[in-house]
């Protein structure tokens, strides 16, 4: 089989918004065992953080995952506060990002896990996230110093209108969906990159956790394996949501259990019209190409990455 050569990514731009300050990566000092969790958003990010925490800490109870695993490029708190806190961590670090690859500093020393989900499922979860955001959330993203670009406004009442605006505006009012997916897909063959899919985790969580452990070089203790699986279940995470959600859910009406909402796919089937769904599928094909669009829609494909084949 002919080896696929993928050039190492280079940072080519900065992204600033009501949420982003990508410049923090310019000052971040990598360690040899760092783990970076990449995702567009609302794609299983918190679930992946929980899984990795459980693997690192061998099934421990009551882990403060949100505190352990910060969103590095979120512009609040500012980088002069966030960077020293991350540098002070003594455990194996696992950091999340919502940036496309070309807005990151990419290190061959780190392991990168990117998790994706059908954009229609992302959108429905994103609408819940946005519609339940409270005044404290808006103050944090709009009123804290350093805002670049327009503030974010409350969403429309209709999820269908929200979907149309998000699709037509390529991620509006957040950030580009298609470039995020596309840039990570393009580096899937690098040896320190692994792709995950929300649907695969739903279908075979134990198998996917073992695959993650193999990629990260973490030996699974079979004695604590049942605890790891229990602590990564949706029911456990929902019941213990304050440990996994930023500030214990203080930014959302209903608290942390609003943030960890349903954990299901396909809610859009009975809401979006056939033409709306078809418009999304046509856009995915045009933006991503057939292989990536098929993976994004359904999960597992044979050509995803070396780590999948080796697991």
UniProtKB/TrEMBL annotation:
SUPFAM superfamilies registered for this protein in UniProt: P-loop containing nucleoside triphosphate hydrolases (SSF52540)
Top-rank taxon: Bacteria
Protein name: Aryl sulfotransferase
Alphabetically ordered keywords of this record: Transferase
Pfam families the UniProt entry points to: Sulfotransfer_1
A single MF term (Gene Ontology): sulfotransferase activity
Cross-referenced InterPro entries: P-loop_NTPase, Sulfotransferase_dom
Provenance organism: Hoeflea marina
